[in-house]
Design goal:
Strand content: under 5%
Largest sheet: none
Number of helices: 6
Radius of gyration: 35 Å
Structural class: mainly alpha
Number of strands: 0
Length: about 190
């Protein structure tokens, strides 16, 4: 039986070798300061990773519940004001789509109504991850602003539908319920 040898795998690329080998120490330049939060170790890159795992929080103190609540409240305000940031874009898109009944403008109006309605229905789920004992009382204002922004987006949709002529706002839209006027006087021409 002939003996068959497996071919040797190709050598790894140079970037893999550079990534796995420790970095060569460079002399510290005195005119360039280290960035904030940087701690220099004199050994290579692999030992830097090990030391950072051994003492992860030595330079940073744990955050207090008040700081965490403040950060959660800031993030909730960002979410509450996100619909307001979309209003100018939606208004320009509604203006550019025109007032005629085409598939593009109908789809735009449908999306303009659907997204705020979804947002209004999911108000509590949008803010439930920020709700703690410390933020529960202050989240009412945030939720109110969020709901107000969604209602403004709905008002933009109503404006667009009115511009398309789909809202019954004129007297001619209600002619089926109009009664015929009874004249008070009639004029009959006389022939001589």
């Amino acid at each position: 039986m002939p003996s068959y040898q497996e071919p040797l795998p190709p050598p790894p690329p140079q970037w893999v070798i550079d990534l796995n080998s420790p970095a060569t120490p460079r002399p510290k330049s005195s005119n360039i300061p280290d960035p904030p939060g940087f701690t220099s170790n004199s050994s290579g890159g692999s030992s830097k990773r090990n030391t950072s795992k051994q003492q992860p929080a030595s330079s940073r103190k744990p955050s207090t519940p008040e700081e965490t609540d403040t950060l959660k409240l800031k993030k909730s305000w960002e979410i509450a004001l996100a619909p307001a940031k979309q209003l100018p874009m939606n208004a320009i898109m509604m203006y550019m789509s025109g007032n005629t009944l085409q598939i593009f403008s109908i789809m735009m109006v449908f999306m303009l109504f659907m997204n705020p309605l979804k947002g209004l229905l999911a108000t509590n789920t949008a803010f439930e991850r920020f709700e703690t004992e410390g933020t529960r009382g202050r989240l009412w204002a945030v939720k109110g602003v969020y709901m107000l922004m969604q209602v403004v987006a709905l008002a933009l949709g109503v404006w667009k539908v009115n511009g398309m002529g789909l809202l019954p706002t004129t007297r001619s839209d209600w002619l089926a319920w109009e009664t015929e006027r009874v004249p008070l006087e009639t004029a009959i021409p006389a022939f001589q």
